[in-house]
Specification:
By secondary structure, this protein is an alpha+beta fold. The chain is built from 7 helices and 8 strands; from the N terminus they run ααββααββββαββαα.
């Protein structure tokens, strides 16, 4: 039996509507689970930056672990002034959106960790660009606001075996103990050096062999993001 063009058109429209509605319903139903996964992953990343081993921790236990170590959070502006003190609201801040705003309108998160050895670490988020797409991470500073306590980095689409190595411990581990100011108090950030950093370089770590562009992306990301926190860091560093 042949159908008219009108019938075929109506049938096609009805099917498109049914599929669209079905996909919308599925998306709405899945969103809470997706949001929860994003929340847990963010907590895992922050904990990783203060050297809390999370690889063997079940996801359902991450929230409690986060609450144990991350005892407070604030958001500061580029002048170093606290603009948000509610930790729940600070956690919700999307740094990538803040960085699109004019400098004087940005709210920059600081997560404060109280560690088992009695130390306090200050966790700052990082956002930047690699060779093929976004890169991100967190870096934590000791209470001297100069020495790196820990870090974590990740990426969206860097080359496996090359730029993607920024997420590996062999690349991250050397950041620990490096300093971001020189002996005269000048901000140096961290240099990621092709061919390897000298053992006595307090600000340098080895670049990824074959991943120079991504390595430099991490270097720029750290410099730019810590630069936004300079007033906050200097205020606390001098106390």
């Amino acid at each position: 039996m042949q159908h008219s063009n009108k019938y075929i058109l109506i049938y096609s429209i009805v099917m498109v509507v049914i599929v669209a509605v079905s996909l919308t319903i599925v998306a709405v139903q899945l969103k809470p689970a997706q949001d929860e996964n994003i929340r847990i992953e963010k907590m895992q990343n922050i904990l990783s930056s203060v050297n809390i081993p999370i690889a063997e921790i079940p996801k359902k236990e991450i929230s409690a672990l986060y609450d144990k170590y991350i005892t407070s959070a604030v958001a500061v502006n580029v002048k170093g002034e606290e603009v948000i003190t509610d930790a729940t609201q600070v956690f919700k801040i999307e740094v990538v959106n803040e960085l699109k705003k004019p400098d004087d309108q940005q709210s920059l998160p600081v997560f404060i960790a109280r560690l088992d050895n009695g130390d306090t670490a200050y966790v700052l988020p990082l956002r930047g660009k690699g060779l093929w797409g976004p890169i991100w991470g967190y870096i934590s500073l000791k209470s001297d606001f100069n020495t790196i306590y820990g870090a974590m980095f990740d990426h969206k689409g860097e080359t496996p075996g090359l730029g993607a190595e920024i997420g590996q411990q062999w690349f991250i581990e050397p950041f620990k103990g490096k300093t971001i100011f020189d002996q005269n108090g000048k901000f140096t950030s961290i240099q990621i050096i092709k061919g390897g950093a000298a053992d006595d370089n307090p600000h340098g770590v080895d670049a990824i062999s074959g991943g120079t562009i991504t390595s430099k992306g991490v270097e720029k990301m750290i410099f730019d993001n810590l630069g936004s926190y300079q007033a906050f860091i200097q205020t606390h560093k001098n106390h």
